[in-house]
Each structure stands twice: as C-alpha cells, then as structure tokens.
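Propose amino acids for all 720 sites.
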C-alpha cells in the first residue's frame, strides 16, 4: 500500500463486542421481504449484518490490508484459507501461537475455507477431514468450513451423488471436531440436479453435532458456472437448495462476489457472499461496477466513480506502476462492492429489492435470461424443489407496499403483486347484498377506466352513478396491472404505481379483461365499460348518494378483512352492517366502529387493515381455538377463508405478551400456515384464549425454526 493510501485510513474504529454466550451462532432476521432478508449472525468477534460480502484474503498476498478493510470500508468479516495457512510454516506457526486474528491483524469475524477448492483446482489436498477442522478451531476462526467434496457441474450424476453423500458423511465428525466455540459452514453440493441440491440441503440442515448444527450453509460447486456467466443455472441451484435448507440458517454463495449478481441473489434469499474478485480483477486492470466489468484500457472517463479513483483520470492510473495501480483498483473494486451491498440492504428495508433486481437484469444478456427464467418459475404450477421455493417466495412476501411502485414491463411478475393478485382471486367475493337492501344476484359488471388514482377523487362519482343507475352492479377499476374492485381503491401498490399518464388511459384488450373477470369469478355477467369523465362527484347518486357511499365503505371493510385477514365475507357482512366511520379531512376512512367500539382502521400507508384490541377480540370469537402445533406437520385447512391467522404462544411468555411485549422466536409453539408477513395476526394461548394481537414479522415456517428475533410485533396485549 502506498503512503498516500495508508494516510487515508481515518480514525480508529473500535473493536467489535463479542456476542453473549447464548447467542453464539444464532441468526436473527430483522427485516424480510419475500426471500430477501436483513439479518444478524452472532459471533465472538461481533455481529455480521447480512447480506454482506466476505472479501477473500490471500494470507500470502494482502492486496488490501485486513485492518484497512476494517477501518476504512467497515468490512465486518472476511474469509481466508485455512488449508493455505496450514500448509505454509511461516503462516501456520504464528496462527497456532497467536491466533488467526493476530496473524491477519483483523478484529472482526474471520471465516476460513477448508481446502476443498484447492482440491478442485489441484486434484487433491493432503489434509484430513477432522484435522482441518481441528486446525481451524486451534487458530481461533469464528466460522470454519468442513472439508466438503466439490461437485463440478460437468460431473456425472453418480459422481455428484457421491459428492453429496460423502460430504454428508463427513458432517458429524466435522461438527464434533469444531467443538463449542467454532461455528461451521455446511456446504451444499449437488451440481445441476435440483433433487440432489434439495437432498443435500436437507442432509446438511438436519445434522446436529454435540454442540450445534451448521451455522451457515454455503452453496458449493458454483464457481465454474460464474466464470462462464451461467446465471440461469446459478439461480436454479439456489432455488432448489433453498427449498430444504432450514430457514434460520444464513445462505452463502461460495465464490460469488460480482456486484451485478447481488440484487437478484439477495432477492432470492442469499445472505452471504465471498469473493476475491476485487483483487483478482484489479490485478488484471479491470474495474467492477454494479452493471458489469470494464477494462481500464478502454476508458477515457470513469463510468462508475469511487473515492479511490475520483482524484485520477484513467490515463493517470494507466501510467502508474503495476503494484500501485492494482492496489488502487482493488480499493475501487472493494468500495463499489460495499456500496452496492448497502444499496441492496436499503432496498430490502424499503421494499424495493425486486425492483432493483429487475433494473440490474437489463445490464447483461445472460443475467436477463436468468431473470426471465426466475419470473417463469414464479408463475409455474409444477412441483419440485424450484417450484416449492418460488411459491414460498411469493407467499412470504407482504402483498402491500408503503412506497411508490415503478411501472415496467415486468411489473406483473413482482412477488408482492403476484401474492396480492392471488389473494384477490382466491378470497374476494362478489357482494351478496346491495345498497338498496336487495339480496339478489349481481346484474352487471361496470369497469371504470381512464382514471388515475386517487380513485376516491377521480372515479367515486362514476362509481356512485353506476350504482345509482343499477344497484346490483359490481364496480371495478382498470389499473395498469389489471382490474380491481372499487372497494379496494386505496390499496397500494395498485393505487401507487408511478407511470406515464397514457398508461392510466389505456384500455385493456378483450382477452385481458376476460382473464381478469374469470379470476374475480364474475365472467358470467353482462359488462359495461365506462370511461371516467372529470368527476361529477358531488351530484352523483342524487338523494341516494350517502346510502351508496356507506355501502361502498362497508364493501371496503368486508373485502379487506377477506383479503388480508382471511375472514369469510359472509361473517364480516354481518358484523359490518351497522358499522360507523370516522373520516379524515382528506375524506379517507380513519376509524371503523362496530357497535360503537373502534375495531379497525385502514392503514393509510398501504391500504391494508390494522386491528384494535376490540377488533381482535371480535375476530377471535369467530375462531376461538388454538392453531396447530408445529409438530403436527402440515395442517393447512385448504379453506379460502380460514380466519385471522393465529400464533400459539408458550405459557411462559404469556405474562409478557399479554402486557404488550413482542412475541419472540423460540416462544412460539405453532402458527397457522396462512400467516402473512406484515399483516394482522392473533396471539393465543394453548387454551385458545386471546393473549395479544399484532403484525406478523415472520412466516409460520420461520416461526418453527428461528430462536432469536421478533416473531410478532405486538400492538396490544389482551391483559384484562
Ligand atoms: N469455494 C468455492 N466453492 C467451494 C466449494 O464448493 N466448497 C468449499 N469448501 N469452498 C469453495
């Protein structure tokens, strides 16, 4: 490193705090958006906040000093090779004597690999299965790696079966050799075979050593695919392996570290990356950018700048000495890598990781091909590990959003919209009674088109006029992503799509309309298409206006309870009959009262519902039992309206949760499988009593596995 670069290492960053004994090796998810998650992995050298990249340190060539990574780039963990350390006396002796943290001068988390990759490159390694884990333990690594058998994509099925089996056979001895303090990676092999990857995920996931199971599951054998940009197969492997890896274990993509892959990998559930690309590419005069790699030789200006490069022109860098140049480019590459990961984490936080993946997919033809393949899998109904993961991705995504949705050609395939549309198709029902008091069948469908949201301003008059003219009308709105009932006009993303004006004015073609009407179950009715004019809201409906509006309000509550809480419309029609409403100054429903009690509020940010304690008690009375326990296996009822999802709480936690404390993972005995992240749920005791209500922060699957973090964000405890 040059003196100039060394001097830019600013103030000293304090060493990390070791985790508490009881947290060692645990993984907590703090934010989840479908498969994507923000997590914390607890170690003796601090907490790894995921998704993150472990830069590869070659202990013989330290292109960027680990200390500089810690201080300057806030790299909290790195990966180095225990086999290389073991093999070279000049590394082995000091590592054994003073520990790996001292050898590398790095205070954060040190992960080591085992020599498997060397056996792939050179044919074999001389170290034993137990010996290499024991060495990693002795030099004090935080997360070691067992000696797995590398499964190359071009191997025969028999060879790959052997790689999976032999790796699994070595798992228990390795876990026991790691002892109590060293966490271990349990790699998942299986080549290009979906079933082998799923089998490997299950085998490695279920092994339990004397102290614990594997802390992390890297997906192995993928480097040859990345070298050839075979991204479709890469995502296929990820989806099949993920179908069986326990959800409370972080997933690591072994050897994957090009920023172009981060958004898609993270959207599909990757938590950790590692790569030497920052240094290897730099040595080759190549620069990483979030959209691909560029060659220094081709540049007049920087297509993607960084603080490392900003003060130089490409020409000045070309003229530097080779070592100085590659160190500088390595700094740039690491900075870009860290910045892109920060961007991805922020996107997970604000619900836009899928949109980011979609944008990045346009950067490279092979990535686009892979992305389109993933979209196909999300719509696929076949069985198998890939389909299973795709389905879980959709079901674990909160269907509503608090922020604007950018329009694109792929918008319909975003997991939250697929989830929302699936809920609409499954749970929405045509009204059974109408504003004029009649209970007969619907007479017609009216589609309001040509209006942009907020529809309560631009289309309410048209909706009221249509209902005044024919009370038994089902009023739908045409949106750029399909037809929705007018009652759901303020549900985001439907009402929050950012697109040019002419997209709102676009009229769906006949086939599209038929497909939507079919999904909504109203294809049998006569159809009127009404192009909204500037809205005659005040006069619409004449003397019946107030009555029609009240009826629309009631439909809104019935439909939202149905979609987001799984409550049968026939029940909610009953108890919403005499509901009263308090409105905001902008004319939105704020409080919904049943029998004078405030029970519900539409959430202003996304149009879904929040319950009050009175509302939770009312809904609990519809289904006053406890949900199935996890050990009862799959107990989903298969009903379209199974009722508000419930979480079964351990007795020990009741005194805390009934006072309003959050439900913590590890205290949950069971949960309804239709629990939706971000939507209301009830917390009940084994006797079926209501303990609290809140918002699910995890899926039922997660709750069965995790033992750290928040399972339900409680709104109110039910303590009498
Ligand atoms: N590094 C890159 N791929 C692999 C793999 O499959 N196994 C191990 N242990 N290390 C790797």
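Proposal:
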């Amino acid at each position: 490193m040059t003196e100039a670069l060394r001097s830019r290492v600013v103030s000293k960053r304090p060493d990390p705090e070791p985790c508490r004994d009881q947290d060692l090796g645990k993984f907590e998810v703090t934010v989840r958006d479908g498969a994507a998650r923000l997590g914390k992995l607890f170690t003796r050298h601090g907490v790894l906040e995921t998704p993150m990249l472990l830069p590869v340190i070659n202990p013989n060539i330290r292109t960027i000093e680990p200390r500089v990574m810690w201080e300057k780039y806030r790299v909290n963990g790195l990966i180095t090779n225990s086999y290389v350390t073991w093999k070279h006396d000049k590394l082995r002796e000091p590592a054994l004597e003073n520990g790996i943290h001292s050898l590398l001068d790095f205070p954060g988390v040190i992960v080591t690999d085992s020599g498997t990759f060397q056996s792939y490159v050179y044919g074999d390694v001389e170290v034993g299965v137990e010996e290499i884990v024991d060495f990693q333990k002795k030099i004090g690594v935080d997360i070691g790696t067992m000696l797995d058998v590398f499964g190359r994509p071009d191997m025969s099925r028999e060879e790959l079966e052997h790689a999976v089996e032999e790796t699994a056979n070595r798992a228990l001895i390795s876990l026991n050799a790691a002892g109590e303090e060293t966490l271990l990676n349990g790699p998942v092999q299986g080549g290009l075979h979906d079933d082998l990857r799923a089998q490997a995920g299950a085998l490695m996931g279920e092994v339990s050593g004397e102290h614990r199971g594997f802390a992390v599951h890297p997906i192995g054998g993928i480097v040859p695919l990345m070298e050839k940009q075979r991204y479709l197969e890469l995502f296929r492997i990820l989806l099949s392996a993920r179908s069986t890896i326990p959800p409370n274990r972080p997933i690591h993509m072994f050897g994957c570290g090009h920023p172009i892959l981060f958004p898609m990998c993270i959207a599909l559930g990757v938590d950790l990356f590692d790569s030497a690309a920052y240094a290897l590419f730099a040595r080759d005069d190549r620069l990483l950018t979030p959209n691909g790699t560029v060659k220094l030789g081709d540049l007049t200006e920087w297509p993607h700048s960084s603080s490392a490069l900003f003060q130089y022109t490409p020409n000045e860098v070309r003229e530097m000495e080779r070592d100085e140049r590659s160190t500088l480019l390595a700094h740039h590459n690491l900075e870009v890598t860290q910045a892109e990961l920060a961007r991805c984490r922020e996107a997970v936080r604000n619900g836009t990781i899928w949109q980011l993946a979609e944008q990045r997919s346009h950067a490279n033809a092979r990535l686009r091909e892979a992305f389109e393949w993933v979209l196909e899998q999300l719509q696929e109904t076949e069985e198998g590990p890939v389909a299973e993961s795709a389905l879980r991705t959709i079901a674990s995504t909160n269907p509503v959003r608090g922020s604007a949705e950018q329009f694109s050609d792929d918008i319909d395939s975003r997991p939250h919209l697929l989830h929302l549309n699936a809920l609409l198709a499954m749970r929405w029902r045509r009204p059974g009674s109408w504003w004029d008091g009649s209970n007969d069948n619907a007479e017609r469908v009216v589609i309001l088109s040509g209006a942009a949201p907020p529809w309560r301003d631009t289309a309410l008059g048209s909706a009221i006029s249509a209902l005044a003219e024919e009370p038994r009308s089902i009023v739908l709105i045409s949106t750029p992503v399909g037809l929705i009932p007018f009652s759901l006009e303020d549900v985001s993303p439907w009402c929050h799509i950012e697109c040019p004006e002419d997209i709102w004015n676009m009229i769906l073609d006949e086939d599209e309309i038929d497909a939507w009407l079919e999904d909504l179950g109203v294809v049998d009715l006569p159809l009127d298409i009404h192009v909204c004019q500037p809205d005659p809201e005040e006069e619409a409906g004449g003397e019946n206006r107030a009555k029609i509006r009240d009826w629309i309000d009631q439909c809104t509550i019935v439909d939202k309870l149905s979609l987001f809480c799984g409550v049968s419309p026939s029940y909610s029609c009953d108890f919403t009959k005499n509901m009263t409403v308090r409105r905001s100054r902008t004319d939105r429903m704020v409080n919904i009262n049943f029998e004078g009690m405030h029970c519900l509020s539409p959430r202003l940010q996304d149009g879904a519902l929040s319950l009050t304690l009175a509302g939770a008690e009312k809904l609990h009375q519809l289904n006053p039992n406890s949900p199935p326990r996890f050990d009862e296996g799959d107990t989903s009822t298969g009903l379209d309206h199974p009722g508000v999802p419930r979480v079964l709480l351990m007795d020990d936690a009741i005194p805390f949760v009934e006072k309003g404390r959050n439900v913590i993972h590890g205290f949950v005995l069971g949960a309804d499988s239709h629990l939706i992240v971000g939507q209301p749920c009830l917390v009940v005791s084994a006797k079926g009593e209501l303990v609290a209500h809140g918002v699910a922060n995890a899926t039922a699957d997660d709750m069965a596995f995790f033992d750290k973090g928040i399972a339900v964000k409680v709104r109110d405890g039910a303590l009498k």
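Residues 113-114, 116-117, 145, 148, 150, 187, 220-221, 223, 254-255 surround guanine (CB under 6 Å). Residues 322-349 form the longest helix (28 residues).
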